[in-house]
Amino acid sequence: MNSIVKKIIVPVMMVMLVVFPSCIGDNFELDKLSTKVQLQSSWIFPIAYGSMTVEDIAKIADSVADNHLVPNDSNLVIIRLQDTMMSQTAEDLITLMNQTFTMQFNKTDYDSAGGFAPTTVVMTKHETEYPFGVVLGQLLDSMVFDSNKLRIRVNSNMPNRGQLIMTFPELRKNGNSYVRMIYIEPQGNSYSYDHTFTDLEGYVLDLTKAHSGVNSLFINYTLALRNEGSQPFNPEHKIDIQIDFNDNEYSWLFGYVGPFENELGPSKIDLGFTNEITSGAFYVEAPVIRFIISNSFGIPTKYGFDYVNVHNKRLGRVDPLTGNVPFFDVNPEYLVLPVNSYPYSLVESTDTVEVFGELTNLPQLLYDLPSSIEYVAKINLNPTESGTQRNFMSKNSKISVVSQLDVPFWGRTPNICFVDTVDFDTGSDTTIFNYFKKIQVTLDITNGFPHDIRLQGILTDVNYTYKDSIFGTPEEQVIIESGIVMNGVVTGKTKKTTVIEVTKDRFDKWKGSKYMILRAFYNTTLPSSNTQPQESVLYYRHYGVDVKVTAKAEVEIEEHL
After folding, report:
1. Are 522 and 274 in contact (CB under 8 A)?
2. Which of 110, 197, 250, 356 could form a disulfide with 150 if both were Cys (CB 3.0 to 4.6 A apart)?
3. For 6, what's the count of Cα atoms within 13 Å in the CB-facing half-sphere?
4. How many other C-beta atoms can be found within 10 angstroms of the C-beta atom of residue 281?
5. Per-residue DSSP letters for 82-97?
6. More confident residue, 411 or 58
7. For residues 438 and 436, which has the higher predicted lDDT (pLDDT)?
């Protein structure tokens, strides 16, 4: 609305204040004139000409609305307000914890192995089982490492040399188990080793060898020590081993991720274009709330709204959305399982649920031009499973939940009123107007919109005290009749010519003006009788209004220079 004022009304006035004195200065050599000047003249020239379409109006009214105009084959104006309620990858949902596995070889292990016989002892601990934890406790069958940091630390307090072999039998790549060998080379009576490996990319970890319901990792340890004339293995001697799996990232994962349920929200769709409306209503035909679920997890999904509330700041009211709406606890929706296609990317499944206005109270709630729509949704993974479902996903698998509100400009507007305030600073010096007897500004407006437009501009000082109105008294309006409408479609335009006369007396009233308060009323085609409703009309992008502004200035100069 600000742009309309600045492009039409404000330039009309301000150009006149600047152009005429400069024309006088440019066309007369004042120093060659006599000291007494008398001049009477009448000049007519165009000030502005232009057109605005419905699309332009949307851009002016609300930049957010402009960004959400939906292209369509019919060119009907549709505003789509959208909110991403959830966008979560598998890496975000299934997080692998840092793991620490410890082992110790001591005098008991030495004795069990038979001691040095005669110069070597081999101690083994096979298939040592460790829990492999996941943050949310999911039960995993297997996974393919994308990256990780495998840190191995060995500390010995004995002088014997030897080697430590660690085999991970269920961690394989190309059929071969992952193996690490550490050579123990003491310096004196102790030995310490600390190294981090990053070579597990592509290794497959099978976590099911123990039994179902447990994520288990197995490690085989083989420690061989040599007796090279050193002291025997005493009770205080020991070798401590610590293995850390840190920063674990997977490329593929298979297993049961559990009956994961998540509440999304509260989220809000802000209907910003209603903020400037002070009264009136807009009955929208065929609004749609859309609920879009995209899933490239190998996981069945249940989803629905917990609640949807429509807030009307202007009326101080909150109303629930009712009707045929997918509520999570009553009539939820289910999304089909994507296709498992390892080792290739999963095929994404997308489901769209549309809540149509005629099956809900949404048109009635939009009628009063609410300020926002707030809602909470719920989503449940594996909703009907108790632990037998096997899920499959890659690190890039993603589940997203997007909500949309489509508001088609198809309906009726009983007396909507926009009020906006713009700067209109004339200053306190009005001597510049002494050259003019009066100025007449003619507005020729050709209306191709399916509603009439009623305008008034009020000038105020800095304290918003009334000074003057543009079109007659404050209660008056300039009325631009609606375009010719038949069956909801504009078939012709109507023209309105309005003359604004500004005299010296009015210029004096404008002295000290600071703001212009613009009121604009919109009414769609009125019924032929009081017993009939207004006709619903369609707003197409090409509908528009043509504006031509011309000015006639009567200049009267009689003074000594």
Report:
1. no
2. 197
3. 8
4. 15
5. EEEEEEEEHHHHS-BP
6. 411
7. 438
* Per-residue confidence (pLDDT) for residue 110, from 0 to 100: 93
pLDDT, tens digit, for every residue of 525-537? 665 545 556 678 8
For residues 466 and 515, what is the distance between their CA atoms, to the nearest angstrom? 10
Cα–Cα nearest to 550, from 1, 57, 22, 11: 11
Tally the residues of the chain.
Answer: 561
- Which residues does 500 contact at the CB level (< 8 Å), separation at least 6? 12, 440, 441, 442, 443, 470, 471
Report the number of secondary-structure helices (H) and strands (E) in the chain.
8, 34
Average pLDDT of the chain?
A: 78
What torsion, rounded to 10 degrees, do the Cα atoms 502, 507, 511, 513 define? 0
User: Candidates 2.115.10, 4.10.410, 2.60.120, 2.40.30; correct CATH number of 78-91+257-408?
Assistant: 2.60.120
CA angle 30, 32, 34 (to 5 degrees): 85
pLDDT of residue 341: 56
Which of 284, 234, 220, 293 lies closest to 108 in space, CA to CA? 234
Q: Is 276 in contact with 61 (CB distance < 8 Å)?
A: yes
Angle, alpha carbons 511-517-521 (nearest 5°):
140
What does the block give as tokens for 482? 């609606």
Task: Please state whether beta strands 436-447 and 176-184 pair in parallel, antiparallel, or not at all (unpaired).
Answer: unpaired
Q: Distance between CA 26 and CA 49 in Å, rounded?
A: 25
Antiparallel, parallel or unpaired: β 398-408 and 410-412:
unpaired
- Residue 251 sits at φ, ψ, to 5 deg, of -100, -30
In sequence order, what E strands does 117-227 have?
A: 120-131, 139-156, 162-173, 176-184, 191-197, 204-206, 216-226
Q: Please tell me the distance from the alpha carbon of residue 549 to that of residue 498, in angstroms, as a whole number.
A: 10
CB-based burial, 48-77: b 16+ in 10 Å, e otherwise = eeeebbbbbbbbbbbeebbebbeeeeeeeb
**Pairwise CA distance, residues 287 & 216, whole Å:** 53
**Alpha helices per DSSP H over 473-537:** 504-510
* Segments making up each domain of the chain, as ranges: 2-66+414-560, 78-91+257-408, 95-256
CA distance 381 to 93: 11
Q: CA 49: distance to chain centroid? A: 38
Distance between CA atoms of residues 430 and 500, nearest Å: 19
> Which of 116-120, 171-175, 188-192, 269-273: highest mean pLDDT?
171-175
* Residues 486, 492: Cα–Cα separation, whole Å: 9
